[in-house]
Amino acid sequence: MNTPNDSSGPAISRRDVLRYGALATAGVFLGKRSTLAASPLIAAPPIPQKAKAVIQIWMWGGPPHLDTFDPKPDAGYDYCGPLNKPIKTNADGMMISQLMPQLAQQADKYSIIRSMTHGSFAHETASYMVQTGHDSSDRLVYPSIGAVVSLLKGYDAGYKGLVPPYVVLTELQGRFSECGFLGPRYQPFATGGDPVRQPFAVQGIVAEGISSRRQAERRNLLHKLDTFGAAMGDDPSIAEYNHCGDEAYDMILGDGGKIFDLSLEGDPTRDWYGRNTFGQSCLAARRLIEHGVRFVTINYKGWDTHKENFQTMNRKLPEMDKAVAALLQDLSQRGLLDSTIVWCSGEFGRQPKVDWAAPWNGGRGHWGKVFSALIAGGGFKGGHVLGASDAKGEELKDRPVYPWDLTGTIDQLLGIDPEGTFPRIGDGSIRLTQAVGGAIKSGGRLTELV
């Protein structure tokens, strides 16, 4: 990731990056009102904004495209295994896995990209490219699109929410630094805990075994013990500190904590999404978006199926089918889908030809030549299929979509100029999305789907 690349953008000095990171760290301690020195985003004229928020369902490990959104029933048993009976959807000509009947009835709400590509077979490199929209050979470590949205549509846009604008359910990937050179202020807030449990023990906000009354009593005791703060009177630094503390307690005891209280949804809604960690994470994501959070990533683990792929699919696909179908329908019924992008993919696909030998026993390896993504809402059309793989799902056949093509289109729908640059970074010329040319290829923005 740190190797120089002649096709990268203009240089940024190590001193600039370290300086910015230090300022961003200081911002964490001053709360959301603290900002770096004002500077406009260097960009083309504003792009009409259709989306306000993104829910990213990150299928960590790489979901098998042949078993999900790009079935190949004619390829034979060595490619399809037992999943050789794809089903029709309510969108003309679109077929998906036989294990996703509920999503088949919601296909008018989403489109499928069957020609995602980057060529990497390594988790870290592929994750970096898909999440940041930048080639991994650049000498800089770029922020994920979530951190970019947190910057440009969160803190720099006067975000007022108690919950940070970028949230991960429930833990970080750990594959790369999501905030990149922006610094830790733009690191996502990782909830921890398990949304299936009551209460959902969100890190730093909701503690198991400690009631709201006990939290309030602790707060009152803290104020009584704070003799130094009382002696300082109206000192601005102490006032700022107290204000940050008040906001923290408002998050714990007020509306901030209630956002994560899924019991307020009632049993029928919770059952609709599925009483499992992923299903309840999708429900929590909807609640976060309703309360103004700009970017939510659901870190959905368990897709690295080197061994016993089909046993895993029989467990995970029904779980995913139920939750994602409920999420799309729920967002639609609440009038939120038009302004919320739902993006469902992993870092790559899985090897189309199944490895039946021991110890793999029907496993699939990594596959970065071609893979699939589901995209919905926020200005994306539903009921369409973009691009194609070949007859066995091994090679790209039609309409390549590179990670920066997708992230650039998401930026555009959020009202962010994908050709623009990061504000206040170096000399102000570091691009938001990958510059193409030479070895860096592009299939172009997804104009067919917007």
Please supply descriptive tags for the structure shown above.
Alkaline Phosphatase, subunit A; eight-stranded mixed β-sheet; two-stranded antiparallel sheet; disordered N terminus; 450 residues; globular; alpha/beta; 32% helix; 13 helices
Question: Can you put this structure into words, describing what you see?
Answer:
- Helix content is 32%, strand content 12%.
- With 450 residues, it is α/β, with parallel strands linked by helices.
- The protein has a domain at 14-26 and 36-155 and 168-188 and 299-449: Alkaline Phosphatase, subunit A.
- Strands 6-5-7-1-8-11-4-12 form an eight-stranded mixed β-sheet.
- A hairpin with a 6-residue loop joins β13 and β14.
